[in-house]
Amino acid sequence: MSTPEARLSELGITLPEPMKAVANYVPFVISGNQLFVSGQVSATPDGRITGRLGETMDLPAGQNAARHCGINLIAQCKAAVGDLSKISRVVKLGGFVNSHPLFTEIPQVINGCSDLMVEVFGDKGRHARSAVACPTLPLGVAVEIDGIFEIET
């Protein structure tokens, strides 16, 4: 099986510069053999993906926003450990979706990130997960996702 970096290349994904914290927190913390990555918002190198699911965005747009959260999570992982092969497991993702109260496809939105983790890390990318709706998210983004990863120490 190829490396996570090779799979990113095969997928045509170039990792962006890791996002800087926008408040009083750090982008990631390593504790023992676990890497905790702070919430990564739906943003591309060109700007934030904003909107509200079920109002100004549809499901495919939300899945794309979640995929970009996943790319930003992986960028933070690379900043934390250098070589993505040191990620031995994606343990858990926590997904937050800016959505209209009647929009109920929250789990399907977060699949945009979950699917990416499996594409990049293979079976090590299968994870536990939560997916919740929010009336708003920081900076007006559509999706925010945080993650816990097991790393080789």
Question: Care to describe what's here?
Answer:
- The chain has 153 residues and is α+β, with helices and mostly antiparallel strands.
- The chain has a single domain (4-15, 26-151), classed as 60s Ribosomal Protein L30, Chain: A (2-Layer Sandwich), CATH 3.30.1330.40.
- It contains 3 helices and 7 strands.
- The two termini are 21 Å apart.
- The mean pLDDT is 97.
At a glance:
The chain has helices at residues 4-10, 59-81, 106-121; strands at residues 28-31, 34-41, 43-44, 47-48, 87-98, 128-134, 143-151.
Total strands: the figure is 7
The CATH H-level homologous superfamily: RutC-like
Which assembly state applies to the chains in this document? single chain
In total, how many domains does the architecture comprise?
Answer: 1
Any idea of the CATH topology? 60s Ribosomal Protein L30, Chain: A
Q: How much strand content do the residues show?
A: 25-35%
CATH class: Alpha Beta
Major beta sheet, strand line-up = 1-2-7-5-6
Tell me the number of helical segments per DSSP (H or I, 4 or more residues long). Answer: 3
List the helices and strands in order.
Answer: HEEEEHEHEE
- Binned, the helix content reads 25-40%
Largest sheet: 5 strands, mixed
Whole-number average pLDDT?
97
- From the spread of the alpha carbons, the general shape counts as globular
- Rg, alpha carbons: 15 Å
Helix/strand/pairing category: alpha+beta
N-C termini distance: 21 Å
Question: Secondary-structure map with pairings?
Answer:
Layout (H helix, E strand, L loop, with lengths): L3 H7 L17 E4 L2 E8 L1 E2 L2 E2 L10 H23 L5 E12 L7 H16 L6 E7 L8 E9 L2
Parallel strand pairs: 5-6
Antiparallel strand pairs: 1-2, 2-7, 3-4, 5-7
Helix pairs in contact: 2-3
